[in-house]
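Q: Okay, next protein. This is Response regulator transcription factor from Arthrobacter wenxiniae. I've checked the sequence twice, so it should be correct. Can you predict the 3D structure?
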Amino acid sequence: MINVLVADDELPAVEELAYLLGRDPRIGTIHRAPGGARALEILAEEDVDAAFLDIHMPGLNGLELARVIGRSPRPPLVVFVTADDDRALEAFDLAAVDYLLKPVSTARLAKTVGRVAEMVAQPSESRESELITVDQGGVSRIIRLDEVRFVQAQGDYARLHTAEASYLVRVPLSDLEQRWQASGFVRIHRSYLVCMPFVTALKLGSAKPTVSVANTDLPVSRRHLPALREHLQATRVRPLP
């Protein structure tokens, strides 16, 4: 069961969302808060898996509240619920699971609860950077980390390659290597990181080793080859002792 917190300065909005959440069999205890300050008190006292936060609350608003609880040792997942559709990018920059527009429909809320349930079932370290904001052609998009197949260095930038497109981000490859190591990304070359679940082959027959990632051959440097082979060796099928 998923224990949740609903925070909104408008009591009818709190009760309406609590009612809709209560109809979902995956939801357990529902805590109610009439504002950000009370929400912090509840989070300090209770075990909460996900917090549904209104953005516009007097005093400590939803965005500020998300920043505060994001610094806690075991922060709850955050879902923003608001009447404004112009704060989505700020919300996802705070690693929000979802962004719901009022009035919230039962079907839309069910999808959000499903996403929350999946993430609650994951180890906490695998939740980091689940959603990434990227810019493409003047449009900001949200992609999932598990969509990224490999990353290519381009100076002080990095290009994220997915099945559908590639996206340039203003982050050095070395920073992404440290940040995403726990999510299965391995350095294979000074210019490349690969997501190991997408690696289908390691080719050693030529003078320059390569790996196949989604029908794309990427170079493997001699420096990084031992670590890559160690990762692949860990997945090798062996007979039972």
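A: Here is a summary of the prediction. The CA atoms of residues 147 and 162 lie 6 Å apart. The helical segments are 11-22, 36-45, 62-69, 88-93, 106-120, 173-180, 225-233.
Q: Noted. On to the next one.
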